[in-house]
Amino acid sequence: MSGLKVGIIGAGKMAGALVQGWVGKGVVAAGQVMASVPEKDAALLQPLAGLGCQTTHDNMEAASFADVVVLGVKPGVVPFVAQDLHNKGKGQLLISVAAGIDTKKIEGMFGSDWRFVRAMPNTAVTVGEGATVFCLGEGAGQADSIIVQKLFSSVGFCERVQEYQIDAVTGVSGSGPAYMYMILEAMADEGVRQGLDRKISYSLAAQTMVGAGRMVLETGTHPGVLKDEVTSPGGSTIAALRALELGGLRGTMMSAVSSAADRCREMNKIK
Asked: Over 60: is that where the pLDDT of 271 sits?
């Protein structure tokens, strides 16, 4: 993707992590990136400027500079950004990573002469282990799909889906890191109660989570089968699994995913 110019509107944690990943992997040259935030948030630009990216406080300047514009602001800020950019596109690809705002609503806000894509990454893009899905909106075609795939697959898993699936994806992977952190923290806390040093307890819990995920991805084996392979008759693991079932872990996790997905749908209904 040599020569591709990328404009970043909003340089918070997600957008900043994406840029650092893309530049670090050589997918986009630092000098071909221009990031924009309001003057009061100028400190957010410092890490990107340190990479060699261009910076500005003018969203229109970033958009006019770019072939691809990444809308990296919070959902509630999107309408305010759109006011300045409405009908001012010049055919750029506009990628929104704002949760709970579908492409039709984005199109209505930003107007004509943009090619629209909606993407849902998660924060693990920071370490190159993200999970991202995307769908195409008005004006976007196969060439745009290839661009998005190359960008986001450089920082983890990336898959194109239908738009109606994205709220469910938010429930599973968009919000998912928070569920994993809570489980990890609980495991480590009990490790400490059992006499482990906190640092090693966190490391053991985190690596166990990483390893279990890698086993599913690389072997293609059903999680239930992998679970059974760890479980011996009358052993410690089956005793632990019984405690998890009695505690309602399975149903609680399903309810968490459902709640996050439902909230995204609610957000999209807010005018």
From this structure: no
